Structure formats: C-alpha cells, structure tokens
Amino acid sequence: MQRHPFKKSHKLRNTLIAFIALIIVVLIIFVVLGHNNQATSQNNVSESTSIKKTKSAKKATSTIASSSTSQLSASESTSVAQVPEAASSAASTAISSVTSDATQTPITENTTTENSVSSSTDSSTEQASSHIAQQPTESKPVSFGNWSMATYNSVAIGSATYDQVRAAYGSPTYMTASDQLYATWQSTSGAKVSIVFTPTGDANDLKLIASSKLQTGLQ
Question: Hey, is 60 helix, strand or coil?
C-alpha cells in the first residue's frame, strides 16, 4: 500500500503546537529571570540598609566620643604680632630670664581623699570585736593649685602677660623656650594648663603676651 503525504491540515496543526510550545518556553524563561532579578534587588536593598545603619552607628559613636573629649579639654588661640627683628635680641633675653621660674614639681590637686571607716561588734562570746579594713574613696580632681575651669577661662589671650598670669596662678611646672615661651602648669595626676607666650612690642617696651592656651583634665 502506498503512503500518502501529510495533509495540509496536519501540517498547520503541528505548526500551531510548535508555536504554542515556544511561547510557553519563553514565558517560563521570563518568569525565572524576573524572580531572580527581584531576589537580587531585595538583597541589594537589604545590604544598602545595613550599610546605612552601620554608618549611622559609627557617626553616632564618633559624635559621642568627640563630645566626651571636648568636656575634658579646651583650647584657644589668637594672632599676636611678634617683635621686629631689631628687638629679637631683647626678646631672647626676656624669655631666658623667666625660664628659671619653672618649679619642675607637679602641683597637688585641691581635692582631698576621704576615708570611710566601718567597724562591727560580734555578739559571740568567742569574738568580742571585729575589724573591717579602711577603704579610701577618692574623687576626681576638679582643680589644682589656683587652676580650675573658671580661672582657665579667665585668662584673656591676646592681652594677658606672663607676669600677670604668674602672679595670679603661681610659677609654671615646666617651661621651654624658642622664639616663644611655652609654660605648663601640671598637677600630680596629669591635669594641666599650657599657655604659649609670644614676645611683642619693641626693645624699650617688650611684653610676653599669651597667644594660645590649652587645658586638659579639668572638669
């Protein structure tokens, strides 16, 4: 028996089936890709949020640390005209003459140590009394010598002279000199006030003027 070729209706049906199958495959690919893109987008948003939170936390920590440090230290400076070259020799002499004022001995804090003593009596017949060791409690220094935050703030840079500061607050603990005078008043615990004095004026009217100041440790 001789086979007949496919009818045209069969060819059309097969073509439609193949076209529909192709469309289904394309739709499946689009759905899978869309799901992957959505998951990636969600991951990116989550990572971005996490990074922003981390940056915010670091910034807040930095701000707190900065505020804490600013409560313990303060500084201020101004521009003071130095002596002209003609008076440099007189300025060196004036600076050298006061460097021996340094005591080299830290200043004792004004706060005192408080001792707390407690004792108890045992009612037992075997032990008449008992001793509890003394526990000293020490508060943080708020000032030393004549220095406190108030007196530090009262030093007017740009006008206060070395002689005025020394007369009011005593001799510095340490001093170094170059073309300026660096004076430091330091406590036994390390709190200190440092002032830089700049020579100004002329050979006949030479002054050491406070041009900058810094304190650390005062509360």
Answer: helix
Answer yes or no: are the C-beta atoms of 184 and 175 closer than 8 Å.
yes
Six-digit token pair at 152? 């530090």
pTM, two decimal places: 0.55
Q: To which H or E segment does residue 195 belong?
A: strand 192-201
DSSP string, 12-33: HHHHHHHHHHHHHHHHHHHHHH
Distance CA 7, CA 164 (A): 120
**Residue 168 one-letter amino acid:** A
Q: What is the 8-class DSSP label of residue 161?
A: B
What are 164-194's pLDDT values in tens digits?
999 999 999 999 988 899 999 999 999 999 9
What sign for the dihedral angle of Cα 69, 182, 195, 209?
negative
**DSSP H or E stretch at residue 55:** helix 8-72
Write out pLDDT tens, residues 89-110.
Answer: 888 888 888 989 999 999 998 8
Residues 6+ apart with CB under 8 A from 175: 98, 99, 101, 102, 181, 182, 183, 184
